[in-house]
Design goal:
- By secondary structure, the chain is of the alpha/beta class.
- The chain has a single domain, classed as UDP N-Acetylglucosamine Acyltransferase, domain 1.
- Helix content is about 15%, strand content about 30%.
- It has 3 helices and 30 strands.
- The longest helix has 21 residues.
Length: about 260
């Protein structure tokens, strides 16, 4: 089709030879497109493996042409790396990881997770089942654990967000521990607000930060708290209902039945 159109418009058409027949196959259907995509994927993976990247199962791995991956990195099955992603040396990626337009430093480990337009510094650990949304930055030796979502946030060096948390529009310093179930409440229905947590803060499980709010260095947040005001450095903040025990209540309820 292209030859006919070019000839009709007066362009010169010439024959050329190639040692690789796959390079000039025609694409006239979705089936042809699938075959061409498969061939291109194989060429990309071959180049990476010849340059020292370990790809456990090429049949289940998709990597775009512009992606750069360092030596001795291991890519496990069901991994997709897209866009202008750069991955350093000695990383472990996968299984079941999707990365797009991100920069991954050396010795990073990512398992069963999605990373989009983010930066991960060296020796960080991501996943399983984490989601790094655009404009996130994970510091050196930081840990983002299972069922954690990070959105447009910075997580400092050696800080941990290990379990079932949402961190959005937040800046976290170094050596912070975020307990399970912590939420930054950053959206009031109209506007997004920031949360700032300084170095060496300990956050107990099931904590809500009502942004905008700032937590000072070395502070401790009691589990189950809903924090609506700034917390001074090295303070203990507890914001939860006081427990009340009603003696014999359960026994009386059973007797009524």
């Amino acid at each position: 089709d292209a030859i006919e159109v070019l000839t009709r418009k007066g362009h010169r058409v010439e024959a050329c030879t190639t040692d690789e027949a796959d390079e000039i196959i025609g694409i006239n259907s979705r089936k042809d497109l699938s075959l061409a995509t498969k061939i291109m994927r194989e060429h990309i993976l071959d180049r990476l493996m010849l340059n020292g990247v370990t790809i456990i199962d090429p049949l289940t791995t998709t990597i775009d042409r512009e992606v750069e991956i360092g030596r001795d990195t291991i890519i496990y099955p069901f991994t997709i790396v897209e866009g202008k992603t750069k991955i350093g040396q000695d990383c472990i990626i996968g299984p079941a990881v999707q990365i797009k337009d991100s920069k991954i430093a050396h010795k990073v480990e990512i398992k069963n997770s999605s990373v989009q337009n983010s930066i991960i510094e060296s020796e960080a650990r991501i996943g399983p089942y984490a989601h790094l949304r655009p404009e996130s930055r994970i510091g050196k030796r930081a840990k983002i654990g299972n069922f954690v979502e990070i959105k447009k946030s910075t997580i400092g060096k050696e800080s941990k967000v290990s379990h079932m948390s949402y961190i959005g529009d937040a800046t976290l310093g170094e050596n912070i521990n975020i307990g399970a179930g912590t939420i930054t409440c950053n959206y009031d229905g109209f506007k997004k607000y920031p949360t700032y947590i300084e170095d060496k803060v300990f956050v107990g499980s099931n904590t809500n930060f009502i942004a905008p709010v700032k937590i000072g260095k070395g502070a401790v947040i009691g589990a189950g708290s809903t924090i609506t005001e700034d917390v001074p450095p090295y303070a203990l903040a507890i914001a939860r209902g006081r427990q009340r025990n009603i003696k014999g209540w359960a026994k009386k309820k059973t007797q009524r039945k």
